[in-house]
Design a protein that fits this description.
- Helices cover 57% and strands 12% of the residues.
- By secondary structure, the protein is of the alpha/beta class.
- The chain has a single domain, classed as 3-Layer(aba) Sandwich (Rossmann fold), CATH 3.40.50.
- The chain is globular, with a radius of gyration of 16 Å.
- Bound molecules: adenosine-5'-triphosphate, (3R,4S,5R)-3,4,5-trihydroxycyclohex-1-ENE-1-carboxylic acid (SKM) and magnesium ion.
- Magnesium ion binds next to helix 1.
- It holds the Pfam family SKI.
- One of its GO terms (biological process) is amino acid biosynthetic process.
- It is an enzyme of class 2 (transferase).
């Protein structure tokens, strides 16, 4: 597998960071998590950026960071933020600069992972009932799906592996 950049996209909690790290180790490529990249550049957490400057400023910063990280790394695994593909023409930009993979996970699974992690650490989710959480995620996904499904490859798995994803990418490269 030789293609330059692999971008992982999907809902918060879908496993972009987890699978991204595994894929980077498997392929011996650098791993960039866009949220962490932004936090390093800005010197504050994504949560603080949202609180201090609001979402629209965050989205501009995020779009810029996506372009900077892309220019910085010819070969890398890049885990994007949950909303990255949905703003500033980012999904088209991603598809012009590498292979994109949508990690598709059912909302019920995402919610059970988030509960295990502790929902209180996510400001937009804390205090919501199960029904409210489900509705919030369903609405978010139904809007975002149009962007996520522009990805080169959709990987729908509850138990994803770097090895299996590489096979899917190889199959796609052969067919291309
Ligand atoms: N295949 C899996 N099975 C079960 N739990 C998983 C799996 N992949 C990731 N997780 C767990 O789900 C949570 C979310 O995973 P991860 O942080 O990788 O997702 P993410 O898409 O990067 O989320 P975020 O948008 O918040 O950055 C973590 O607690 C992680 O340990
Ligand atoms: O789903 C979203 O809109 C977000 C997901 C995170 O990765 C962060 O990029 C931020 O919290 C916004
Ligand atoms: Mg992540």
């Amino acid at each position: 597998m030789t293609d330059n950049r692999i971008y992982l996209v999907g809902m918060p909690g879908s496993g972009k960071t987890t699978l991204g790290r595994q894929l980077a180790t498997h392929l011996q490529l650098p791993f960039i998590d866009l949220d962490h990249y932004i936090e390093r550049k800005e010197g504050k957490s994504v949560r603080k950026i949202f609180e201090k400057t609001g979402e629209s400023w965050f989205r501009k910063t995020e779009a810029l960071a996506l372009r900077q990280a892309t220019e910085e790394y010819d070969q890398a695994i890049i885990a994007t933020g949950g909303g990255t593909p949905c703003f500033e023409g980012n999904m088209d930009y991603i598809n012009r600069h590498g292979i994109s993979v949508y990690i598709e996970v059912p909302i019920t699974e995402i919610l059970s992972r988030m509960k295990a992690e502790g929902i209180a650490v996510r400001p937009l989710l804390a205090g919501k009932t199960d029904a409210q959480l489900h509705q919030f995620f369903s609405e978010t996904l139904s809007h975002r799906k149009q962007f996520y499904t522009k990805a080169t490859i959709t990987y729908a798995s509850l138990n994803p592996s770097a090895h299996e994803l590489c096979q899917l990418i190889d199959q796609w490269l052969v067919k291309k």
